[in-house]
# Entry
Amino acid sequence: MSKYKVNLKINNIPISVDEGTTILQAAKMLNFNIPTLCNHPDLCVAGNCRVCVVEQKGSRTLPAACAVPVSEGMEIQTNSMQVRAARKHIIELLLSEHNSDCTKCYKNGNCELQDLANEYRTSNNLFIDLMKSTKMDISSPSIVKDDTKCIRCQRCVRTCAELQNVNALAVVNKGHLMKISTFLNKPLNEVVCTNCGQCVNRCPTGALVEKNYIDEVWSAIYNPEKFVVVQTAPAVRAALGENLGFDIGTRVTGKMVSALKRMGFDKVLDTDFTADLTIMEEGTELLTRLKKALVDGEKVALPMMTSCSPGWIKFQEHLFPELLENLSTCKSPQQMFGALAKTYYAEKINKNPQEMVVVSVMPCTAKKFECDRPEMRSSGYKDVDYVLTTRELGMMIKQAGIDFTKLEEEKYDSVLGESTGAAVIFGATGGVMEAAIRTAYEIVTGREIPFVNLNVTPVRGMEGIKAASVKIKDVKPEWAFLEGVELNVAIAHGLVNAKQLMTQVKEGKANYHFIEVMACPGGCLGGGGQPIPTNMEIRKKRAEAIYQEDENMYLRKSHENPEVNDIYKEFLGEPLGHKSHDLLHTHYKARKRY
Amino acid sequence: MEKKLLKKVDLIFEKCNCLNIIDKVLQRSGDDIILDIIDSGLKGRGGAGFPTGLKWKFAKNEEADQKYIVCNADEGEPGTFKDREILDRVPEKIFAGMAVCAKAIEATKGYIYLRGEYNFLLPALNEKLTVFNQAMKDRKFEFSIEMRSGSGAYVCGEETALLESMEGKRGEPRNKPPFPVAQGYLGKPTSINNVETLVFALAIMNIGPEKFKEFGTMDSRGSKVFSISGDTPKGGIYELELGMTIEDFVNEFGDGDTKAIQVGGASGFCVPRKHFKDTIIGFEGIPTGGSMMLFNSSRSMYNVLQDYLEFFEEESCGQCTPCRVGCQQLLKGILAVKRGEKPPAYLEELKKLSQTMKIASKCGLGQSVANPFNSIVNNFREEIIY
# Structure
């Protein structure tokens, strides 16, 4: 459908744009940047910070460029004296409410308000200091909320509502008392918050940040009595470079391994290994459930749902407790790793698990919550001791004085360091599904999946909910019950989409066997612990990097991982076996909504 | 400038047979009704003064499967209490005015958004609405009205915040455009009119635009219900012709010692004695939603301003920066000047700030704080400083 064109002038330059374009977008086309704070490409327009005001000829007031669509004959000035004076006032006002102790702020150097204050050369004390001395909310193991730094742009509120549909954060009170808070002002760890950290990814200041464990990890590294192993999640390697001088979408796996070794970790291992292991366990679990349903006529919970994303798990525990049976009992790769590190691996390297410290580097803030769950102590110790986000690792590499861009690439240590391309794609939405299909299809039929170059394209991409079917034909005799079965799968990323899909399941309107859900938009690559900023373009580039990494791997199917085969032979026995059950599987608990 | 002498009028409270008027209106086309309203020059009586006929025309021209008419009875402006009186004494005229609008713009559903503090009026209003809705049914006119109750936030009188509140959301103003006439309640074209405006629309249907135009001036047609309070021996509700000077007004309602008058409530303008003669009450002079607060020489204008600013500091919805923080800064600022913590020259900074609030705030609330601030600070600077 062709759109109407609208003619206008911005800073005296004529331009013709599609109807519905905002002044902000039109200005961008002419290479005029208008500053914004409350605006975010992933969220609906708010128009409340007013930093983007511009002058419109004939208008008594200054329209907000982010919120006002262009109209015919409009004449806009984006940088007039009046506009600059108003913007400066607005920034000064925000600063007067703001805790401007920047040198002590975790977001120092990566703060949109700080950038604007610098750009507009604010005098910082034009107005009276209005900062309220409120206590930080440090109740959550994942997220720290500091209201003294909040500029009330409501990006977090919109994120929690629009992208996640969780609504843990909301606006309360009005006027000078207006603030962002939780239900009944309860601490974050007592509300429906899933710890996904999407709000952290979009907070322009330091009001919402991850709880960092940087000092704890340095202490462990420099404690001679501790043997510190680190695992890195699939999505980290596709984004860490953004914090360390590389372009978006650069894969930095080898450099990251090298940096971790230089930082002093005793062993640098890979969560990808347990991602492959997850496929073996979860794939077997799915096939077992299908067998029970199709052959034994037993009542089993289908569709089965993935359990890698701890934000998604907590969401389900709060909002769909009646569907907990549908969740795979598999722990997430992070927790499988932790459980094996302090058992199998400790034995192998002859270490006392008590002396071991397991650190994870994750694209995720919810993983910090996950490792604290009481269920996650099957080694007899806390399986994973500390979780660092991609951002924290970036910061630590800088603290260590490592010139990251110039590092030689190195390889992961062994064992627990070998992985396949199927594990890497866990980092992108649809990746777990694709990895599972690659393995399950081959186990059942003895043949590779019928997709060019093993790329299961129907499950890829950034659509909120994806669905696909795989027809299973000519199966091996032991899987005869699956002959001719059309395996229906669905994938959701972003909890707003998950909620939609779960509602369908709950109402019996969904005919799926297997569902993958990731709490964050784009999957782990868009996780709450990934470099800031984030937007669709950035997430797509990270996804490309992940799929490239997969294609460059020699092994691309989880069941071909030699270390995985070894661990079954030497230690676990078989998927879903007794040891697996003890170490690699877990259970869930229903939680209240408030 | 065209001036009128102070004259009491009775269009609002005068008894009339509403159903007869509706019957006549139902015979007419929407365009025809709107032409009359445009011709009458009626402007919104809530304070902003948008031409009513034009608003209805916009709403009529929208194509939609559903349209709404909302009566804004969230009378929250300090010093304004005329809608309460209208709601109490002639509610049928409001309903009938809404029916006129419904016929004109092709709306089938009406809502009266009643300020939370006026909930005591609800039982009587609901009772009368039952009768009215039945009367519409009897006439086979597809239109009914329901009451909606606010919770006492001043900002919900702002039309888009009102809609948010009606939709069950937090009462925060929306970005405009789109305007409510295009996307209002539940995203459908909605005409939002003040209580008094709707009653005048009915009056125009009754007496015709020509008769209506006999009252008032070129820019301010008709009469207006005033809420008169403060230092006056005759406080209360009066319907007066628009276009009189403040001097005339003060001569009638003042106590002989009036030093200033706040026209249009807390968000309006303060007029000092020296400007009484040359200030007209009306859209060409100082527009008002009806509030007239008189102050005599016993009053401290500093206290008046502080009161207003405390009100705005609390009643800002808090979403936009200029209004949320600006109101606090203005209040803290005059306090600091008063206490000598800031030099008198700081008032100039605050005036500049109020100017920014006027042009950069998201809605009328923040935009109008500059009105009382500047008019009081400019005219009573000494009282603010010393």
